[in-house]
Design brief:
With 136 residues, the chain is mainly α. It has 2 domains: 80 residues, Multidrug-efflux Transporter Regulator, Chain: A, Domain 2, CATH 1.10.1660.10; 52 residues. A 3-stranded antiparallel beta sheet has the order 1-3-2. A hairpin with a 5-residue loop joins strand 2 and strand 3. Helix 1 packs across helix 3.
């Protein structure tokens, strides 16, 4: 094997993305279809692995597959303007802020419910009572 060629297992290790996810990204068109060896195994090159690392980092930052597709297109477009990238990232920050707000609301409510629960041998439990209410 040449040092710049990877089978799917090696590409998975090098990119920290599972083989299953690599196949899924390939099937969805997020990454190009892999070349095939004479024995029909997938073969990835260094550029493919760098793309997978890019995807991994973007996923770690919470970007959706759709957003990552846009980011990949911008990354490979040398004529891009950085304002497009900044706009996409800024939009993502706003979504993260909204999610944080929602998570903090959930945490506050759950903290309140936990503080109301005696957590003893009695069967009554305000946590379960609250979950059983059909208020939305």
């Amino acid at each position: 094997m040449q040092s710049d060629l990877y089978n799917i297992g090696e590409a998975a290790i090098a990119s920290c993305i599972s083989s299953k996810m690599i196949r899924r990204y390939e099937e969805s068109g997020l990454i190009p279809k892999a070349s095939r060896s004479l024995s029909d195994y997938r073969v990835y090159n260094g550029k493919n692995v760098n793309m997978l690392r890019f995807i991994k980092h973007a996923r770690d930052l919470g970007f959706s597959v759709k957003q990552i597709s846009s980011l990949l297109n911008l990354w490979t477009d040398q004529a891009r303007s950085s304002s497009e990238v900044k706009s996409l990232a800024t939009e993502h920050i706003l979504l993260l802020d909204q999610k944080l707000k929602e998570l903090n609301t959930m945490k506050s409510e759950l903290t309140r419910l936990v503080s109301c629960c005696h957590g003893d041998e009695r069967p009554d439990c305000p946590i379960l009572d609250s979950l059983a209410q059909n208020e939305i």
